[in-house]
Amino acid sequence: KQEVTQIPAALSVPEGENLVLNCSFTDSAIYNLQWFRQDPGKGLTSLLLIQSSQREQTSGRLNASLDKSSGRSTLYIAASQPGDSATYLCAVENFNKFYFGSGTKLNVKP
Amino acid sequence: EPEVTQTPSHQVTQMGQEVILRCVPISNHLYFYWYRQILGQKVEFLVSFYNNEISEKSEIFDDQFSVERPDGSNFTLKIRSTKLEDSAMYFCASEQSTDTQYFGPGTRLTVL
């Protein structure tokens, strides 16, 4: 069964810092990988989707990479802002089922 | 911007009662999903639905659960006889065909 792990579980950084969130998965036969943002008490917002044949995707200050063979993905956030404070989840799709990590709770201090 | 909506935002029920959670997906989307998140735990996939039938379901989605798209707009999750362990946040999501899923705000289900 697919297992998705995210490190670190929590991260606190000063505003302006660049940071990297990590996601690893045990079964490399994924169809795609998504990074989501979850604000307290809210639903999930898709940030970036990487298909299994792709290596990275970029949106604004966010860049996500995928190394399928090693079972790893990273989400890079440039020039972090207090508004980036949220929980970031990664999820993989295997054979039409979806598996989420526990998330990294990010706090960006002004 | 179109969004997925869910009702109610919070549902309290007694153990053994039936509940129906409702979702209105984005209008031109074709794929529909239900997830749950028990407090402090991971988001868990329950079921996917396409072309008026279940396309995939997880081990969690047993005979107590069912989904339906009763009309062109609503997508429902029914739990026939709720248990204490069904208490969770339930999220609906929809997708056009681009693999990007759009989530609703969730329904918090509390089983007493």
Description:
The complex is a heterodimer of chains A (110) and B (112). Chain A is built from no helices and eleven strands. Chain A is globular. The mean pLDDT of chain A is 94. By secondary structure, chain A is mainly beta. By secondary structure, chain B is mostly beta strands. Chain B has strands spanning 5-7, 10-13, 19-24, 31-37, 43-50, 53-57, 65-68, 75-79, 88-95, 102-103, 107-111. In chain B, the strands form two sheets. In chain B, strands 2, 4, 5, 6, 9, 10 and 11 form a seven-stranded mixed beta sheet that branches. In chain B, a hairpin with a 6-residue loop joins strand 9 and strand 10 (102-103). The N and C termini of chain B lie far apart (37 Å). The interface between A and B is medium-sized, with 24 and 23 residues.
Largest interface: A-B, 24 and 23 residues
| Low-pLDDT regions of chain B | none
What is the overall silhouette of chain A? globular
Report mean pLDDT of chain A, rounded to a whole number.
94
Task: Specify the structural class of chain B.
Answer: mainly beta
Query: What's the total number of strands of chain B?
Result: 11
* Radius of gyration of CA atoms of chain B, rounded to a whole number: 13 Å
- Strand-residue proportion of chain B: over 45%
Largest sheet of chain A: 6 strands, mixed
Strand percentage of chain A lies at over 45%
Low-confidence stretches of chain A: none
The proportion of residues forming helix of chain B, as a percent range, comes to under 10%
User: Number of DSSP strands of chain A?
Assistant: 11
Q: Taking all residues together, what is the mean pLDDT of chain B?
A: 93
Taking Cα atoms only, what radius of gyration of chain A do you get, to the nearest Å? 13 Å
The N- to C-terminal Cα distance of chain A equals 41 Å
Please work out how many helical segments of chain A DSSP would assign: 0
Oligomeric state of this protein: heterodimer
The outline of chain B comes out as: globular
Our measurement of the CA-to-CA distance between the termini of chain B, rounded to an integer number of angstroms, reads 37 Å
* Total helical segments of chain B: 0
